[in-house]
Amino acid sequence: MKRNKLILSAALLLLAFSLLFTGCSVDASYIGTLEDEQIPVSDYNLNMFSAIAAAQSKTGETTIDLDAILSHEIDGQPADEWISDYALRQLRDMLAVEKEFERLGLVLSDEDIAAAEAEAAKQWETYSENYTMNGVNMESLRRSTLATYMPQMIFEALYAADGDLALSDEEIVLFFEEYLFFRAIGIRKFDAEGETLTEDELEEQLAKAEEYRQRLMDGEDGDALVAQSEEEYCEEMETELDHEHGSPLVPHITVSEKGDLFYSVALSEFIENMAVGEVAVYEEDEDYYFVIQKLTAADHPTLVEDNRFAVSYELCMEDFSAYMESLADKLTIVVNEDALKVYNARSFSVK
Predict the structure, then answer these.
(1) Of 55, 97, 128, 326, which has the most beta carbons under 10 Å away?
(2) CA angle, corner 49, sides to 47 and 54, nearest 5?
(3) 39 torsion bin: left (phi>0), alpha (psi -120 to 50), beta (else)
């Protein structure tokens, strides 16, 4: 009877130990879950590098001395907590980028993928020891690098003419309110060797400029006249003509900020003082007689199409950043506290 009780007690003790150790086992392979999907801890660990660098900047430490950095408080938080939160925010931001990229149905080109993978491989070759000792694998580095190629494509999709955040045509035209629009025909004052023409030759060139001015005033197609003048120039100078630039089918309209003209400030001021629709010859440039026809944004048939993305970048980058941040704010990562106990700033090692 005693022997049976002893065997039973030993069995119960073994079961207790089994339950104890089973209950204490941890899974630190993922940092948390997002919509029931586990996020590899390696993705979080990769962001710890930038988090520690940010902490160094915040604390004013001149080197990445973890003991020194962790002795500080940052924004009212112990430095180790601030670093973990920063890394999690960075991770959440990347996930928001990936999800928006997928929502918009975008796909990276083979060229972008190849470039990203080459960049990741180069980083791995340089920093693999640091990465490996801190629980970062190549797949996380590849994923992070690929994600850096996505924001521009997201921006262009959102701000395309049919995009969710597109500027209106009117907003794009309004952007050019302080710009000059004009058509310019340049009649050279130099020969094929770059020498200034003689007085008689200059008079002939000025007469040619006056002829172009009159033809513009008479209503001839301005783009065709610019193309013709460029062909004449190339024949005289024995140089080749850029087919597209010289085509009368391309709008030959210059768009320039007031006072910031490529040719000269004086020419910019000359054009600014012209009346809309006026055609005049500017004689003061050293190299050319310029036949100028002053226009408006309404005269440029492809202004909106040609400048949609440039204007959107200029006006909307802050709004785009706020939009992406708002998407990230909507994501809730359920953190795996067991992983945070294993991987944190105090367990991190930087060589």
Answers:
(1) 55
(2) 95
(3) beta
3-state class percentages of the chain: helix first, strand second, coil last, to nearest 5: 55, 10, 30
Q: Which two tokens stand for residue 100?
A: 């928006």
CA-angle at 145, arms to 333 and 143, nearest 5°: 50
At 109, is the secondary structure helix, strand, or coil?
Answer: coil
Partners of 32 in the β-ladder: 39, 335
Q: How far apart are CA 259 and CA 266, in angstroms?
A: 8
Report which secondary-structure segment, H or E, holds 272: helix 265-272
Model confidence, pTM: 0.81
Question: Rounded to 5 degrees, what are φ and ψ at 184?
Answer: -125, 135
Quick: pLDDT tens for 173-190.
999 998 999 999 999 999
Is residue 65 within 8 A of residue 53, CB to CB? The reply is no
Task: List the structure tokens of 306.
Answer: 């040609």
